[in-house]
Amino acid sequence: MRLRLLLRLIILLVAAASIGWWWHTPHGPWLMHREPLAGQRLCIIGDGGWGNAPTLAVGRALVLLDCDQVRYLGDLVYPDGINGPDDPMLESRFFAPLNPALEAGIPVYLVLGNHDWKQNAEAWLEVARRHPLIHFPHYYYFEQWPDACAFSLETTWFEKWYYLRRQGAWLTQAMATAQRRQCRFSLVFSHHPMISSGSHGNAGEMMQLHLRSKLIGRLDLLLGGHDHILSDEGEYQGTRQLISGSASINNDLGQTSDKQRFTRASHGLVTLDLRDDGNSLRADYHFYSVLGDPDDPLITLLWEGEKRGQGIRE
Which residue pairs, CB below 8 angstroms and at least 24 apart, start in 83-89? Predict the structure, then answer.
């Protein structure tokens, strides 16, 4: 009798340990790219989910600016996301602006924004499965090139404590693994920025508590949206924050951040050109306003800068 009870107890303990192991084990996928990131132009857009005239103009600019890949930083369909992969708003508010890029064969990589969680966020996984140029393998994922690495994060989850440990454990392990690989330049793509001069301001308390120390001072470049502005927020402990969240609407500016270099409430996007100068990998970034006719937009350079990569630091 005692032996049976002991065996049951052991089985329960093993089951509990297994559940705990699954819950804390990283689950985000790893995407491996054969071609170096150096020599490619990344175009970063955010918050284009109204599918209005400014969004259509920004979508056309993706082709005119010779983008090699597009990074879309969330709020893909306003105001409440989609109810499924066949939602009619997908065509008018998501695909219509991206069609020029997709027809040109330019791949688009997604992260979700807070508005995309209002209905069926899981539907975006199916949207990506159906369209070979739309990449969204998971809510968060890691990418490795021969010369660089990137982390695409699900920052809306940091408002929900029960998701923190899962993504946090994955990020810790992914960063440790990337440190052992050739990563001369490190990037983060997320909806919420850590630092912002827009009216939404800096990241909320939970992001500051659980994410700031993992990113600031350890990675090279953070790219976020959420605030509907274009902004170079400057550098903090060797980490630079850029914001591109004005693909469809603009909002007011907020309190200026401590090291802000440029901020403009204008429709537009950011381009990022990775260069290998022999000594290091360098990102040359440009902020463009995109205004006027969606078929023939006026594209104006507003601001430019550069960031030299240090990879991932301890």
Answer: 83/119, 83/120, 83/123, 84/120, 84/123, 84/126, 85/123, 85/126, 85/127, 85/130, 87/123, 89/51
Compute how many other C-beta atoms are within 10 angstroms of the C-beta atom of residue 244.
31
Structure tokens at 225: 């949206």
- Tell me the pLDDT tens digit for each residue of 123-163: 999 999 999 999 999 999 999 999 999 999 999 988 665 45
Question: Is the model's pLDDT at 8 over the cut of 60?
Answer: no
Q: Which secondary-structure segment (H or E) carries 72?
A: strand 69-72
Q: What tokens appear for 268 in the block? A: 């537009």
Find out whether the peptide bond into 294 is cis, omega within 30 degrees of 0: no
Q: What's the pLDDT score for residue 158?
A: 81
**DSSP 3-state assignment of 226?**
coil
Number of C-beta neighbours around residue 161 at 10 A: 10
Distance, in Å, from the CA atom of 221 to the CA atom of 149, rounded to the nearest integer, reads 11
User: In the structure, what pLDDT confidence band is assigned to residue 164 with cuts at 50, 70 and 90?
Assistant: low
Q: Are 165 and 24 in contact (CB under 8 A)?
A: yes
- The pTM for the full model equals 0.90
The CB-side HSE value for 309 (13 A sphere, CA atoms) comes to: 29
Residue 289: pLDDT over 90: yes
First vs last C-alpha separation in the chain: 54
Burial per residue of 89-118, b for 16 or more beta-carbon CB atoms within 10 angstroms, e otherwise: bbeebbbebbebbbeeebebbbbbbebbbe
Sheet with strand 41-45: strands edge to edge: 134-135, 108-110, 69-72, 41-45, 268-276, 281-291, 298-308
How far apart (Å, rounded) are the C-alpha atoms in residues 291 and 298? 5
